[in-house]
Amino acid sequence: MSRAATNAPCGLDLNKFSPMSKSKCFVGKIFRAPVHTEFHDNAGHNRPADVEKTVQTKHGLVMTKLRWMIVVVKHEQHYTAIPLYTHNGTGLSNKSERAKREYVSIRDDRLPDFEGLSKHGVLTAQMRNEAKDLSRLSVAHLTAGVSRTYGTYVEQANDDWLKADYQ
How many whole angstroms separate alpha carbon 56 and alpha carbon 85? Predict the structure, then answer.
């Protein structure tokens, strides 16, 4: 491991992660970043299955997962992004009709014959060829915006190769 990787925030590899500057941030930009969420389990389990992604605090469990995200709003000191989910490969199939309203399907522009899962239109992600394919089950959670400060570390490209457009 390189010296830069060991000195990076949260152990992030600086060969992949860099600060999101205000000048590089734009509405529709797609990037990957750690998302920290309070652990909750509707099935009544005390611990998540993937304990390596959780930490116990005095206020409860917090789960951290790298997620693709889309910038939806830019502000003076921070931006808001919405996370993408596949729900462990089930898409929206296990969501109630009411819950499905909170999501919009996202299509990787390199995948042909796409059928959206949500009741809304479809976001089209323009991905560079070497980027990992987005799953056909990927959805953007419209109501789960995450506020992020400019300068926080994200996985991104130096150019505008990842962006989403609404159709």
Answer: 24
Can you give the length of the chain in residues? 167
Residue 58 structural domain: 18-166
Spatial distance between the Cα atoms of 36 and 26, rounded to a whole number of angstroms: 22
Residue 133 included in any domain? yes
Dist. CA 133–CA 30, nearest whole Å: 13
∠ CA 12-27-69, rounded to 5°? 40
The H or E element containing residue 98 is helix 97-100
Residue 51 has φ and ψ, to the nearest 5°, of: -65, -20
Q: List, for residues 57-78, the tens digit of each pLDDT value.
A: 888 788 788 888 999 999 999 9
Residue 5: inside a domain: no
